[in-house]
Amino acid sequence: MKQSKIARHITLAAALIVAAGTASTATAQEVVLKLHHFLSAGHQNQKTVIEPWAQKLAEQSDGRIKVEIYPQMQLGGKPPQLLDQVRDGLADIVWALPGYTAGRFPKISVFELPFMVSNAEATSQALQAYYEKYARDEFADYHVLWFHTHARGLLHTREKPITTVEDFQGLKMRAANRSVGDALQALGASPVFMPVPALPEALSKGVVDGAAIPWEIVPALKVQELAPNHSVIPGERGLYTAVFVFAMNKEKYESLPDDLKAIIDQNSGIEMSKFTGHRWDLAEGPGEQVAIDRGNPIVTISDEEVEKIREKTASVTAAWIENTDDGQTLYDAADALLDQYSQ
Fold it and tell me: Under a CB-based contact definition with an 8 Å cutoff, are residues 237 and 117 in contact?
């Protein structure tokens, strides 16, 4: 009888040990997050931003967070669908452009208006600060990790460089978003909207005569060969930029243990905006160098012509203010933040 009781106690103790071990394993269970984006695995944003970020999450979580990266739309769909994919749980995290879906995120698009960019580092921080105070409601369906922009865009054309406002007349120019398209139209060009991966084919087939993009993306798309004339718009602010967001599925984030949420939170927000913007600024030099090495003409548009560009594109900003709720307040806030972070 005593042996039977002892046996039962041993069995119970063993069961408790197994249960404790199972609970411990569950607590330390690995979380796999699928990150989807539209550019290649070799693009500098994956190499210098996404991969180091994923590695940091893995290290700080003792391997409990694993980020699987799916570049070049490997999970299916097209770049404008990325935000729907992460909202609907088809991906856990996406790197996407809200501007690819025109009119859907009007508040955040203020930074895509003409002359609302200094450099990527400063503009990205201003954008993040603006989002946190003024635009959270637009992204209520997502857990936003951070925003950033690219450096100021310039103009690349197939036939000859743009040096005057008159040179825009009749050109078909690729535009990333509605605000850039409206600005090009105000200057006399015809905007053609397309995600940036479609640009090389459009240039080679003559679907477009040029594009507004930053130096950073030039080598990856071989723009130095396809549109070998480059026009820089000087000044404290450039003609345009585009807004990017790292967004996470809200339910996926909320399902995580508190300690893993904390690790993600520590690697989100304005510090990541600053870091990402800085990496994009650094990528401008190598992008320009491929054009220099090829001997391409790179012209700086005169201050007089830049002022004409400002005058002609002012209507785009005025229309945005008029058509956006509290448009003047939002524009003034974004403008002030851009000045603040650009000092």
Answer: yes
